[in-house]
Amino acid sequence: MTDRRWLALIVLCAGMLMIILDVTIVNVALPAIQHELGFSQSGLAWVINAYLIPFGSLLLLAGRVGDLVSRRGMFLGGLVLFTAASALCGLATSQEMLIAARFLQGVGGAATSSVILGMIVTMFPGPGEQAKAIGVYSFVASAGGAVGLLLGGVLTSVVSWHWIFFVNVPVGVATGVAAWRLLAPDRGPGLRQGADAAGAALITAALMVTVYSVVSPPAPYGWTWWLAAGLAVAFVVREATARTPLVPLGVFRSRTLTGANLAQLLSAAGMFGMFFVGVLYVQQVLGYDAMGIGLAFMPVTVVMGGLSLRWTDRLIARFGARRLVVTGLALVTVGLLYFARTPADGSYLADVLPSMLLLGVGGGLAFPALASLAMASATPDDAGLASGVFNTTAEVGSSLGLAVLATLAADQSGYRTAFVAAAVMVAAGLAVTMAVLRPATAVPAASVAELVPQ
């Protein structure tokens, strides 16, 4: 049983790695895509946006539907759609075909990734093995972006940009076959026990408009932000009055769940945005090519992986998840501030590598511990909901951080202000952790289900 569960974990993480890689692997290939398909500079942004909008907006809905119907079915269905859409992306011969296929990729990616964390905490109920399993998941989720930069550079340089999508097809098929054999069939209570079509429509629309507002140029008078706020308010009113709400608002009475997700949103904004601005610095100032960029960020992956896979679970058991989050986010903040002092004529070894090491250690400590805290009060019945909420905060935070830091870097004609802003975001996540999350090493006694009025 134990061997089968750990094999199943590898399958789930393989699916997650595909999704995470796709976020960054495309960035390296954008110039080649633009040249071949004739994108304008503004139109090229939609190669990214067409993926981010459905991905960020559907995570919460997909996680809840997975709870009610089948998490295994949601994972497999999303994997099939993502793999098929990847093939269409690789075959694209026009701008319209590529953007449409990227949208389908985003839908499949949301369905696949929304239930993974929920399946992990269900398969590994014991605190020790759960912390280790979440450490593996967090390593894949956090370090996959850096691997994507390297892989994207290799495929684009050696073969063509089409293969950054084609590579997903054999991996997706193999992952799907393994998942079919290794993941135990499950069945939820059914949509009748929690169907909320109106709530689903409102939250999906609110998240979609929010992500659109983040990744697109500002609309006249900022009307999209007002629309997103109105939809969010309507969703809250709906969930407070619905007989079977999509997201029972009572779950947010858990300090642990709410605090961990808020800290995740802020720290993801700083960390993910830093990767984008850091790539620009390494490329435009140090003159690295696509493969060199991936190698430059590899220390983050190696250090974070070593901690997440071997040590973080033991440290959580010894010191408690909250202490690791505090220590990790403090190290990330210091790393970002060190990056901010990098001069225009800086060198990699003296000015970049120390930051990479601090970010790797800090991320390896903080992010697995945050995931453990966010899922600590989840039950088998609502693990998909908790997973969807956690993934949604990470995605929305990453999108916000990317938009804010990219704008700051462009406006200031440099990177120092952007890195300082990233440090401030992570420091805000640290402050939330210290103020909201209680200093306890044990898993909270109250479950999410117990906090929901019956």
Automatic annotation (TrEMBL):
Which Gene3D superfamilies does the record match to this protein?
MFS general substrate transporter like domains, Multidrug resistance protein D
Main localization (coarse): membrane
State the coiled-coil residue ranges.
none
The Gene Ontology terms for molecular function here are: transmembrane transporter activity
Record membrane topology: Multi-pass membrane protein
- Note the InterPro entries from the entry: MFS, MFS_dom, MFS_trans_sf
What domain of life does the native source organism fall in? Bacteria
Q: What is this protein called?
A: MFS transporter
Q: Which organism is it from?
A: Paractinoplanes toevensis
